[in-house]
């Protein structure tokens, strides 16, 4: 009698979990879940590093671009098929394999966030060189307009071997606008509004306030550039210091899968009791979902941003 109630409890828990998962998935697809709009979300909307950076506003680019690109659709389909096959191998249940393959729906969002983070790091690194170039030109006695023009030349030489040059593209746009009659302050404000990054805001605000209120622009620019450069250096040190933890999180995710494969091929009978009941397949499915959650949580925990 006790075993019957146990099975009933497991079945009820399973159906509650499935209902909650389906409800969460439907809300995610309909984009009704609350989303924290951080710097990476704003970065993607700005389109930094793409050919469309200087063409139109962020809202115009967002309307022109499809929600899912061809690469994202193809990647989602391939990942869903791979997860389904893996589910058949580990769970030996078509139902749980299908549910496991639904995790591929989150692939486009995960991919966009990775691309956004990489572009952010690349932009910040190149912006550090741009600040130093502008500061050095001002210390040499050049005007701000001349410093921006020299910064363009310095970045062209420094980044000639790199494929993506988001900062150089923005400096080119600033110099182009100034040459066609836009004031330096207006061009810098436009650059600040387009990027919407804290480091860019601090550097541009320091220049604009000094030009408006009066002061030693060379000294203010130098101090601001050094302070922001120190902050960027600390961020890079943090990323380097947490690289080991990120590697450990990946190992902790992959190791149980490797152990299960070794047991399945070296001693198949050891895993057979797990497949003899519905509860065994369910707990294997739950373990697979927890491994995916372990990877995602580990990645977020080790992603420290100042």
TrEMBL record:
<protein>
    <recommendedName>
        <fullName>Type II secretion system protein GspF domain-containing protein</fullName>
    </recommendedName>
</protein>
<keyword id="KW-1133">Transmembrane helix</keyword>
<feature type="transmembrane region" description="Helical">
    <location>
        <begin position="6"/>
        <end position="27"/>
    </location>
</feature>
<feature type="transmembrane region" description="Helical">
    <location>
        <begin position="251"/>
        <end position="271"/>
    </location>
</feature>
<dbReference type="InterPro" id="IPR018076">
    <property type="entry name" value="T2SS_GspF_dom"/>
</dbReference>
<keyword id="KW-0812">Transmembrane</keyword>
<dbReference type="GO" id="GO:0005886">
    <property type="term" value="C:plasma membrane"/>
</dbReference>
<keyword id="KW-0472">Membrane</keyword>
<keyword id="KW-1003">Cell membrane</keyword>
<feature type="transmembrane region" description="Helical">
    <location>
        <begin position="68"/>
        <end position="88"/>
    </location>
</feature>
<dbReference type="Pfam" id="PF00482">
    <property type="entry name" value="T2SSF"/>
</dbReference>
<feature type="domain" description="Type II secretion system protein GspF">
    <location>
        <begin position="132"/>
        <end position="264"/>
    </location>
</feature>
<dbReference type="InterPro" id="IPR042094">
    <property type="entry name" value="T2SS_GspF_sf"/>
</dbReference>
<feature type="transmembrane region" description="Helical">
    <location>
        <begin position="94"/>
        <end position="110"/>
    </location>
</feature>
<feature type="transmembrane region" description="Helical">
    <location>
        <begin position="277"/>
        <end position="297"/>
    </location>
</feature>
